[in-house]
């Protein structure tokens, strides 16, 4: 039971975290402060985004109301089977007409491709865009031989050129021909019906119609811009690319019928927003949002506002603050994906899905990430006429960039303040715990240094922390008080032999001198024996007092001794020889066993002799009568072992641990000599003084006891 | 004229016993109870003073009185007779100028003998050099023992601070050079009641140290472990 209890206590001690670990746990708990800040900001963002979505819904409803009853604006485009619809893309900014394609990069995949149907022939692709009052076009022509116009050539159809056919509201066709004399700015000519004869002597002003030609590897590019008032209400136009490979042959590449050489009645339909619808929408334009009105075929009829495109210039050198902000945004986005249930999906099809729902006359909302990382929230509302037919669909898209920016700023602030706060708290806690641990360690060190190798107090009070006003100070003062009392008790115990000697020796001396004076004055016959008995008693008491005093003063006396190299084998051999001679017995009393070679140790010879006296006194007292005592000396690696062995009763197991303590005696044999339990204590002190130790072992078959003194050998 | 001996001892019984024993041996004895009485009474120089150390709860009273007396009478023979027997006390007492240091309990015969020795030594030291020429000198190898003045010399050098006990031990050791002198015999030279082997060994160690101060190779006193000591023949 006792053992179990001790084990449990020991386990508890092992499991109990140390101060450093407790500090670490506390610090980890503190990390929850920025986490809570993040959660607060994330929830705020949810609230703001929800609010934005609700505002969008209301706005969408408003737009729906605006367009209800305006079927004229949203009526289906009456294009014929022979006509193709070419979609116009809303540009972010006005295209710079320079023959380069930077403005068109986002739409390249959406280009319309036209070819002649003959594999041997080249084709071309067309992109149209609109911004403000201008229509922009980018034509990429595959042509293995580009023929430029000869200046002053009367005909315009003898070189590669573009033909634009633009009917006015009355059905009159305006023909424009774009031709280049050299790479760069093209000339725009109004031509007659033959597409070869110019209508005026001079080309159109470049301020009105801009066109630039730039050769490329497999052909050339034409970028042009013209005011949108060139288009009629039906937004019809025609475009043909004429490829002249030599002066004789013309290849006409038209939109609809490449075999025909005229394109008079073959217009394409430019699907672009309605100006009136745009004007209506402009009244409710919102910053950072885009309102798009589609007709029932999901063709854009009106659009206002822009989703601000994220500038992603990878080569731009970022300032450290911007770099940190970018990193913070990335971390936030990552955190959002891990922890934020409100995080949008990354799906570029979301817009089409929403539009489809609108086409199905459903209200819908959605959020998605563009591949560029922009978060878009969108609302879709159907525009329905009084007969419950779908007129169109309103889509409102808005970037959450502003909210994200606000969130980022809030997070930056929170992270900064949290970091500084947590850093401050952690530092303060660390200092506090470090100082606490340091104070406790100092106490522990001082407590350890209070006691010497023999377990005696070296000081009478504690110095550390006794002036502190906190609990550790209380503990130190209590402990210091205990130490002071223990020290007093120790002094009392250590002085006891001296006090005893002082207190006993004076009366002993008085008795002794009195007896001597009595003897000298003469006593009656027969009284001498009493006088002798009294003097023997006095002698015994003197011996006891002397031994007590010697043992008590032994450590001080040892400090006066000087170690000298000595052959221990020779010393012990001489000692045993003289001891055997002194017993005056015919049989050997002590057997000495040792190898022949000397064993040199650093020692004080008469202290070793004193130690042997005590060990042999002990062995003689406990040995079985008429048995010999064995003294053995041998080397054991860097030590030597001096063993004294006797046959006799074993030492009780409970006494083995404390056998060498001061005044411990297990004597049950009455030898007539005083036994104070000092002999083995003296042996211990002397062996320790020589850097060694003493151990006792019980022997079996026959029973006996072996004392082993281990001493370090002097390596020369 | 009887020699005048002063005893300073706070214990009445011991004081009386010393006084009776010494008066019976023909000395004139004056006894004092404590330090103050003694200092007042000792304005006139006695022939010898026997001092206890612990008196009237003052553990150093005897030492203090010794210092005061030697200031007044520098050549005064002083014998400490005390229960303070540690090595430190012994050294301290002798360095203060005491002539000898005798632990209690003491045999009155030994005390009387020691007193006689000290008085004789005092007489000798008061004589000039010419009067010492006929002193008996015991020569053992390089060792010279002046039995009257209790002075020992090794290779011509006087062994400083040799106590009477140590001189007696040297005398006993050198009586039969080469022969072992056992512990009991050596213990008797200390004139103490009970003497352990260790006390004897401590005295021997002190003798060796005092000689080795000027002759580090000194090796004339050899240990016969378990028995005693021997003065080497060639010492």
Task: Give an account of the 3D structure.
The complex is a heterodimer of chains A (about 725) and B (about 240). Chain A is an alpha+beta fold. Chain A has four domains: about 20-80 and about 275-310 and about 325-450, 2-Layer Sandwich (Beta-Lactamase); about 85-265, Sandwich (Immunoglobulin-like); about 465-555, Helix Hairpins (Orthogonal Bundle); about 560-710, Histidine kinase-like ATPase, C-terminal domain (Heat Shock Protein 90), CATH 3.30.565. Helices cover about 40% and strands about 25% of the residues of chain A. Chain A has helices spanning about 1-15, 20-30, 30-65, 70-75, 275-280, 320-340, 350-360, 400-450, 470-520, 530-560, 570-585, 605-620, 655, 680-690, and strands at about 85-90, 110-115, 125-130, 135-140, 160-165, 175-180, 185, 185-190, 210-215, 220-225, 235-245, 250-255, 270, 290-295, 300-305, 365-370, 375-385, 390-400, 565, 590-595, 600-605, 630-635, 640-645, 695-700, 705-710. In chain A, strands 1, 2, 3, 4, 5, 6, 7, 8, 9, 10, 11, 12 and 13 form a 13-stranded mixed sheet that branches. Chain A has a five-stranded antiparallel sheet with strand order 15-14-18-17-16, sandwiched between helices. Residues about 1-15, about 255-265 and about 310-315 of chain A have low confidence and may be disordered. Chain B is α/β, with parallel strands linked by helices and about 240 residues long. Chain B has two domains: about 5-125, Rossmann fold; about 130-230, Orthogonal Bundle (Arc Repressor Mutant, subunit A), CATH 1.10.10.10. In chain B, helix 3 links the parallel strand 3 (about 50) and strand 4 (about 80). In chain B, helix 6 (about 165-175) crosses helix 8. The longest helix of chain B is centred in the middle third of the chain and has 19 residues, at about 110-125. The interface of A and B includes residues 512, 520, 606 and 612 of A.
């Amino acid at each position: 039971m006792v053992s179990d209890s001790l084990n449990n206590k020991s386990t508890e001690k092992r499991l109990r975290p140390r101060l450093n670990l407790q500090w670490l746990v506390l610090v980890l708990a503190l990390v929850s402060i920025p986490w809570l800040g993040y959660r607060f900001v994330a929830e705020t963002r949810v609230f703001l985004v929800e609010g934005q979505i609700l505002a969008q819904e209301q706005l969408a409803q408003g737009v729906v109301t605006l367009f209800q009853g305006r079927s004229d604006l949203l009526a289906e485009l009456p294009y014929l089977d022979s006509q193709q619809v070419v979609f116009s893309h809303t540009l972010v900014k006005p295209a710079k007409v320079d023959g380069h394609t930077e403005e068109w990069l986002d739409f390249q995949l959406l280009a319309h491709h036209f070819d002649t149907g003959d594999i041997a022939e080249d084709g071309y692709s067309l992109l149209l865009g609109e911004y403000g009052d201008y229509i922009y076009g980018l034509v990429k022509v595959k042509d293995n031989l580009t023929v430029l116009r000869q200046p002053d050539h009367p005909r315009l159809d003898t070189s590669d050129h573009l033909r634009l056919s633009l009917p006015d509201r009355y059905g009159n066709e305006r023909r424009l021909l774009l031709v280049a004399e050299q790479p760069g700015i093209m000339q725009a000519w109004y031509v007659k019906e033959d597409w070869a004869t110019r209508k005026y002597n001079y080309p159109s002003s470049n301020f009105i119609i801009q066109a630039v030609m730039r050769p490329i590897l497999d052909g050339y590019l034409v970028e042009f811009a013209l005011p949108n008032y060139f288009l009629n209400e039906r937004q019809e136009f025609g475009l043909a690319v004429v490829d002249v490979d030599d002066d004789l042959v013309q290849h006409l590449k038209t939109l609809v019928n490449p075999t025909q050489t005229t394109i008079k009645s073959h217009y394409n339909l430019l699907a672009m927003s309605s100006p009136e619808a745009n004007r209506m929408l402009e009244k409710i334009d919102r910053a950072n949002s885009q309102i798009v009105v589609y007709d029932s075929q999901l063709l854009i009829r009106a659009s206002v506002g822009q989703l601000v495109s994220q500038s992603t210039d990878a080569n731009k050198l970022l300032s450290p603050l911007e770099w940190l902000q970018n990193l913070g945004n990335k971390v936030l986005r990552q955190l959002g994906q891990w922890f934020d249930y409100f995080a949008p999906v990354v799906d570029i099809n979301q817009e089409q899905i929403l539009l489809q729902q609108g086409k199905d006359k459903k209200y819908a909302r959605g959020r998605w990430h563009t591949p560029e990382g922009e978060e878009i929230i969108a609302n879709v509302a159907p525009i329905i006429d009084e007969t419950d037919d779908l007129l169109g669909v309103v889509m409102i898209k808005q970037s959450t960039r502003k909210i994200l920016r606000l969130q980022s700023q809030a997070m930056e602030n929170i992270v900064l303040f949290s970091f500084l706060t947590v850093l401050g708290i952690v530092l303060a806690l660390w200092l506090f715990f470090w100082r606490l641990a340091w104070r406790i360690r100092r106490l522990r060190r001082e407590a350890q240094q209070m006691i010497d190798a023999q377990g005696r107090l070296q000081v009478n009070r504690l110095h550390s922390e006794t002036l502190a006003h906190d609990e550790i100070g209380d503990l130190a003062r209590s402990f210091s008080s205990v130490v002071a009392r223990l020290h007093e008790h120790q002094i009392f115990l250590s002085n006891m032999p001296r006090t005893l000697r002082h207190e006993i020796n004076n009366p002993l001396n008085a008795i002794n001198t009195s007896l001597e004076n009595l003897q000298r004055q003469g006593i009656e016959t027969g009284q001498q024996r009493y006088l002798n008995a009294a003097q023997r008693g006095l002698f015994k008491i003197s011996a006891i007092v002397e031994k007590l005093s010697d043992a008590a003063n032994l450590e001080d006396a040892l400090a006066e001794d000087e170690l000298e190299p000595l052959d221990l084998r020779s010393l012990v051999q001489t000692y045993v020889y003289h001891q055997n001679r002194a017993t005056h017995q015919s049989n050997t009393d002590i057997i000495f066993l040792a190898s022949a070679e000397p064993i040199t140790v650093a020692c004080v010879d008469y202290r070793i002799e004193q130690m042997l006296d005590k060990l042999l006194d002990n062995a003689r007292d406990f040995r079985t009568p008429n048995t010999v005592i064995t003294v053995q000396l041998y080397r054991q690696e860097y030590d030597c072992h001096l063993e004294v062995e006797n046959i006799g009763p074993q030492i009780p197991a409970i006494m083995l641990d404390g056998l060498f303590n001061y005044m411990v005696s297990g004597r049950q044999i009455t030898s007539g000599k005083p036994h104070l339990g000092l002999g083995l204590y003296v042996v211990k002190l002397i062996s320790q003084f020589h850097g060694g130790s003493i151990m006792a072992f019980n022997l079996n078959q026959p029973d006996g006891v072996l004392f082993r003194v281990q001493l370090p050998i002097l390596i020369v | 004229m009887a020699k005048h001996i002063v005893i300073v001892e706070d214990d009445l019984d011991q004081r009386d016993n010393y006084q009776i024993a010494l008066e019976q041996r023909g000395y004139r004895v004056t006894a004092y109870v404590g330090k103050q009485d003694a200092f007042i009474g000792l304005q006139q120089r006695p022939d010898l003073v026997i001092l206890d150390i612990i008196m009237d709860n003052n553990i150093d009273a005897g030492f203090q009185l010794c210092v005061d007396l030697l200031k007044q009478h520098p050549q005064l023979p002083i014998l400490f007779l005390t229960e303070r027997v540690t090595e430190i006390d012994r050294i301290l007492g002798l360095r203060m100028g005491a002539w000898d240091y005798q632990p209690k309990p003491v045999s009155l015969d030994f005390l009387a003998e020691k007193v006689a020795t000290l008085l004789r030594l005092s007489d000798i030291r008061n004589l000039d050099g010419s009067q010492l020429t006929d002193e008996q000198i015991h020569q053992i190898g390089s060792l010279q023992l002046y039995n009257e003045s209790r002075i020992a010399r090794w290779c011509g050098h006087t062994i400083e601070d040799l106590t009477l006990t140590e001189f007696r031990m040297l005398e006993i050791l050198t009586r039969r050079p080469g022969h072992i002198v056992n512990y009991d015999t050596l213990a008797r030279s200390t004139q103490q009641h009970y003497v352990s082997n260790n006390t004897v060994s401590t005295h021997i160690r002190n003798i060796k140290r005092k000689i080795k101060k000027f002759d580090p190779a000194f090796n004339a006193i050899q240990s016969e472990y378990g028995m005693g000591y021997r003065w080497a023949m060639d010492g």
